[in-house]
Input
Amino acid sequence: MTGPTALHITANCGESGVEGSGGEEVAMRQTLRLGRVAGIPVGVNWSVLVIMGLVAVILGQLVLPGSAPGSPAAIHWIVAVPTAAVFLASLLAHELAHALVAVHYGIRVRSITLWMLGGVAHLEDEPSTPRIDFRIAAVGPLTSLVAGVAFLLAGGASFLLGGPAVISAALGWIGLLNTLIAVFNLLPGAPLDGGRILRSVLWRMRGSRAEADRAAARTGVVLGSVLIGLGFASVLVMQRIDGIWLMLVGWFLARAAGAEQQASTVRTAVTGVPVRDAMTSYPDVAPAWSSVSAFVRQAARSRQAVFPVVDFAGEPRSVVTLALLAALPPQQADARIDSVAVTLPREYIAGPDDQLIEVLQRRPLAGAVLAVVVEGHVVGMVTTDDVHRMVQL
Output
């Protein structure tokens, strides 16, 4: 993982799922789909453009002019831009390696997302053993290391054979960058791959996944704090502006590791708990045929913030929230509720006897899981507050 390799387990729990937290989760959703690789959907966040631009600028203005001063500036840029694209491809290879090993062990992969601080392979299930956990985590840095060595060798061969200096420099720089990514990801703190490796080792030694999760997350918080301190010292004492980047990475790691600590607590609390024990029984529902204005008046008398939208047969079809309704323009006051609601896929509908941990892995929309009886009528709803209540018990 070049960012956190995430397992989306509690994304509806205050945005503190294992995948990351807060802004990172929102950022991950704002993606441009590139297509599928090995059957896995691949997307890039808009922030990737920032990194590609930064890589291209560093190459075009600093690295290549210094390594090949005799080449025209236009040549530097002609080489820099595709080299930045190759770097992006190497990040994808890192995440794809995680995903393919996960698939090999029967773990479903929802998608891969590349963003500013690396990438995320969205796994739908947990590794069932420490050995599988170790292999999924280790293959990412191994892939980056292999790519790094390959690019370094290619750059060296180009140089020895008298190839263009600008090409040799670009290959060597990408090789060095991939090697650094491999080394950085092996640092022993969640959510880095090194943290996952540490977790798998502790899991094997102690026999407790929960204890291993917490230990790796605590190490990640410490590591992030150290990086923030080093970055601050770099800016303040050495007056190096690149210390800001180190502070940003440290902040991200500390925040993501803290989210993993909370996610581990949630996982422990809801494991073995049926949906029935967590749900709010017989919640208020929104009739699909109701107008927005009419339902807003009805919702004002409810204590809920999330409402299942049901059809004439009483079956849940979508979800609407007070926040969504409040954001609607006045001209939509007469629109039907089902025209503004968020569609609720069938896999987000649970039965009362389903295991809560399994339902949370589906990442329900709008912070709600619907529990239904055999006849298809809504008998309960699990919200973020319901899950928090289970954690506090």
In short: The longest strand covers residues 31-37. The chain has 14 helices and twelve strands. Residues 3-29 have pLDDT under 50 and may be disordered. The radius of gyration is 24 Å.
